[in-house]
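Inputs:
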Amino acid sequence: MPTALTDLCRYPIVQAPMAGGGSGPELAAAVCEAGGLGFLAAGYKTADGMYQEIKRLRALTGRPFGVNLFMPQPPLADTSAVEVYREQLAGEAAWYDTELGDINGSSDDGYEAKLAILRDDPVPLVSFTFGCPTRAVLTAFAELGTYTVVTVTTAAEAQDAQQAGADAVCVQGVEAGGHQGTHRDDPHADGTGSGLGLLALIGQVREAVRIPVIAAGGLMRGAQIAAVLAAGASMAQLGTAFLATPESGANPLHKQALTNPLYTHTELTRAFSGRPARGLVNRFLREHGPYAPAAYPAVHYLTSPVRKAAAKAGDAQGLNLWAGQGHRLAREMPAGQLVAVLAAELDAARAALGAGGAL
Ligand SMILES: Cc1cc2nc3c(=O)[nH]c(=O)nc-3n(C[C@H](O)[C@H](O)[C@H](O)COP(=O)(O)O)c2cc1C
């Protein structure tokens, strides 16, 4: 096992895993080669699809990288709210000339099969979101020399992760783009408020656990990375910043939207997947967010054909445009160059802090 999280790469910069096509082997390799920590997103992929990406990444770089898994979700006890949502989305299906999806897709995201591959052919780091793995799973990885990270959105979740044996936590502030990695989605909460901002959360987690912290949410510049390191994080994880790079596999409509002034802000919504996720406010989010049910991943499967049809039609108003609160600061530059620029900005910010100057 690496002696420390920060031994995995030169700079304290992690490229966030981004399921749905955002982060594939090309992006991860470019980040690793430039001195950051690249990540593959196994979510929504088959176990074999994940393994093919691991092999491709290994062909592109010999440096350490991470693989991110979605934790299995409890089966939906009552599908009536999803059936109501299906009726509410009928107009969307008609508009995009498609059908709404079958909600009975897998709710475990192939978790056991993915674990089996990662045990048979270990990778340097595995991270988990939407829950905390069992102690047995984390211990097995520790014995294989695989570093484990659990995403947390509260201090209590961080304590659970530490107790289960995770090597580190990824502390995800409410600013973050994409899904909140909350361990249990509360169906009674509307999912759109109450999350803690990153600096508030780092402070609480640092006092609750002793394992290292990776900070995520709204970070777009090196000076912001300096801020979270000063607050006690060991590394910073950036998603939206890397989404805009040419190596990211995000839909071009999505990439362009990040800095398009038409999109004035982001919101947390259940509209596309049934779990709170932060995206640019577009027509679909505005119209359906207010009543979308807490039913992940059923809603993900339900809306999937609509999102695909919207993408095919070139209509960003029907897409899940995941983005963090910092999206306006996205820079369209190669991922390796972005790592170098962020590292230089971080150095400059640290020098300014050290000299007692203003950032
Ligand atoms: C398009 C997109 C997809 C994401 N997919 C995943 C994922 O598959 N697994 C995960 O743990 N986090 C995922 N996230 C969340 C990131 O890990 C990270 O918390 C977030 O990007 C940090 O906020 P930022 O986007 O403002 O940098 C995703 C984020 C985005 C923007």
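The radius of gyration is 19 Å. Flag for discussion at group meeting.
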